[in-house]
Amino acid sequence: MARYGLLIDASKCTGCHACSIACSMYNELEEEVTYNRLEFIERGKYPNAVMEIVPLQCMHCDNPPCATVCPTNATFKREDGIVSIDENKCIGCKYCMTACPYDARQLNESRIPEKCRWCPEMLEAGKQPACSSTCMNEVRLFGKLDDPDSEINKKMAQHEVSQLVTEKGTKPRIYYIKRK
Amino acid sequence: MLTNHKFWYAVSGALILFGAAGALNIIIHGEHSMGTSNYVPWGALIAGYVFFVVSSTGLSLVAALGHVFHMKRFEPLAKRAVLGSIITLLMGFIVIGLELGSPFSMIHILFSPNFQSAIFWMGLLYGIYLVLLVFEFIFLLKDDHKKSRLFGILVLISAIAAHSNLGAVFGFLVARSYWTGPYMSIYFILSALLSGAALLAFMYFLVSKVKRTEDMQVEGSHIVSHLGKLMVLFLSITVFFTVWKILTGVYGAVPGKHDGIMALLAGPLSFQFYFFELGFGMIIPLLILTLPGGFKPARVFAAAAFALVGIFVMRIDLVFAGQMIPLEPVKGALLPQFRDWTITWAEWGVMAGAIGGAVLLYLMGERKWNLETAPHEEGEDEKAPVSVQLAKKA
Ligand code: SF4
User: Fold this and answer.
1) Whether B175 and A98 lie within 8 Å, measured CB to CB
2) Which of A90, B10, B21, B263 has minimal CB crowding within 10 Å?
3) Residue B266: which residues within 8 A CB-CB, separation 6 or more?
4) CA dihedral B205, B211, B213, B216 (to 10 degrees)
5) pLDDT of residue B384
6) What is the CATH number of the domain that holds A43?
7) Is the pLDDT of residue B347 over 90?
């Protein structure tokens, strides 16, 4: 069974939001709802100010607090590492929303806290998730972490990488290439 | 007016109507009719739920003083406290039921339980607690002291388990440092004692006025005075807990925790914190009770009324201070200083309706059952009080 992960090179992100739009279209979401978003950081002072952009979404944690707190196992970790949701089991307590340190959950019209599921149908068809395949700058490289020859592993070997909010013990599956 | 049955029926009816309108609005419009968001997912109904179940736990704990620990002066409380405990728990369930997106999926708690989830345990433990409470009440009504005491002990254990676990629902949230840790479980139990004593003093004062029997008037005013003394103790404990929560929050700058405390002290929650939580909830009742003549029933009643309002706001503060500080997964990202939240009319309605429901059910209970408690004399378990014997003869 594959172990999926995502490598993000945020320094290449132009902030075009194509990933967010692709996500919304693929998941047929309401207006302005998306499972991945961009966070902006201002660095420095004018005239030497720069804007850094960091794409953010569900990290498909290996120790997902959202699944730990879910009373009915509606949120669960698949063998391939995707953190998924069985909406029939969800009672709508929103405990996963309060438990996620990344604010990754979005309540849908049926009052189910939804999130990125890494487009499982696309993966089955051998494609990349909608956000990754849409990004013009190849900011998002999706792949198999357990395959030493995978693109993602090769690229990770070439760069220093970091992860977000590791201090909460979530063990995220998304890596970020460190900016120079 | 306050001593008139009809007045209370009218009040509860009006509140229930308001509640029904709010509940309908939430059922039809879902989350849109609530003041929550993706960033502040738990709304006022969570605070309302906590308020009701804290009341239930508090009533059971105070009832146990007489009924389980044989503190004579609190023995007459048992039936009313246990009835109140059942009713407030049921109202809490209604409030949380409306907060849940799909309450009917609760059935999966049985078929697909996650033993690591504090909400799973919350469902299970409060379920057990409710069943035990009902048994305790049945045996109390039968004046079967042996069995009712046995169930009283079980209720006490389950109340502490269920309620401290409710604290852990918050305390387990590693992502929200305002809540993380064992503090919540301990604080919930101790503040439940204050809720219980205040609610009982409030109830008992009114019952002793509405029931114009001489027994009840004498007994009622005695109990209310004793409850006032208990309140001083529990208010002091609550002050103690609040002071240390604030000091440990201000000290250092733990992200989330420090900002949450500052939201209370000098941010958007400060008015409600100082005026209601501290003023109504602690300082005013403490002053009313500790100034000379403070344990006169009317004074205790006033202190209890202030404390109950303060305790309600305390729950609101607790729920929102934990969520309104934005999480910062990307350090330095541009974020609002505070996340927005509101309490919508539908949410006010549901909480008001639950209070109305509690009043109505309680009035019906007073009507249906004899809630005077027989004295617990050793070896005389079957002996009923004079009032019960007279009632039976009649
Ligand atoms: S990022 Fe949030 S929603 Fe995604 S697996 Fe981790 S805790 Fe769950």
Assistant:
1) yes
2) B10
3) none
4) -30
5) 47
6) 3.30.70.20
7) yes
Model ipTM value: 0.93
* DSSP three-state, residue B210: helix
Range of the domain at A29: 4-177
Q: Where are the beta strands (DSSP E) in A128-173?
A: 140-144, 161-162
pLDDT tens-digit readout, A131-176: 999 999 999 999 999 999 999 999 999 999 999 999 999 999 999 9
The counts of H helices and E strands in chain B are 14, 0
Secondary structure (3-state) at B333:
strand
Interface residues on B facing A, Cβ-Cβ cutoff 8 A:
30-31, 36, 38-39, 41-42, 99-103, 105-106, 108-109, 112-114, 116-120, 122-123, 169, 172-176, 323, 326-327, 329-334
Across the interface, whether the CB atoms of B119 and A168 are under 8 A apart is answered no
CA distance A27 to A33: 10
User: Which two structure tokens, joined as six digits, stand for B324?
Assistant: 């309104």
The Cα–Cα gap between B180 and B332 comes to 23
The C-alpha atoms of residue B339 and residue B359 are separated, in whole angstroms, by 35
A178 and B CB contact within 8 Å: no
Q: What does the block give as tokens for B327?
A: 């999480």
Q: What is the pLDDT of residues B243-282, one digit of tens each?
A: 999 999 999 888 889 999 999 999 999 999 999 999 999 9
| DSSP string across B94-129 | HHHHHHSS-GGGGGHHHHS--TT-HHHHHHHHHHHH
Q: Residue A150: helix, strand or coil by DSSP? A: coil
Residue pair A58/A34 in contact by the 8 Å Cβ criterion: no
Per the CB < 8 A criterion, the answer to whether B385 and B78 are in contact is no
- Angstroms from A101 CA to nearest CA on chain B: 5
Return the closest-CA partner of residue B176 out of B47, B325, B314: B325
**B77/B189 Cα distance (integer angstroms):** 20
Residue B82 near residue B356 (C-beta atoms within 8 A): no
Report residue B165's pLDDT band, with 50, 70 and 90 as the boundaries: very high
A114 DSSP β-pair partners: A106
| Domains delineated in chain B | 7-31+43-325+345-372 (1.20.1630.10)
Spatial distance between the Cα atoms of A24 and B292, rounded to a whole number of angstroms: 67
Cα dihedral value B255, B258, B263, B265, nearest 10:
-170
The angle subtended at Cα B253 by Cα B249 and Cα B256, nearest 5°, is: 70
Length of chain A: 180
Is the previous residue joined to A47 through a cis bond, with omega within 30 degrees of 0?
yes
CA B5 to chain centre: 24
Q: Which amino acid is at B96?
A: I
* Distance (Å, whole) CA B116 – CA B209: 48
Structure tokens at B170: 């918050």
**Per the structure, how many domains does chain A have?**
1
How many other C-beta atoms are found inside a 10 Å radius of the C-beta of residue B244?
12
pLDDT at B82: 95
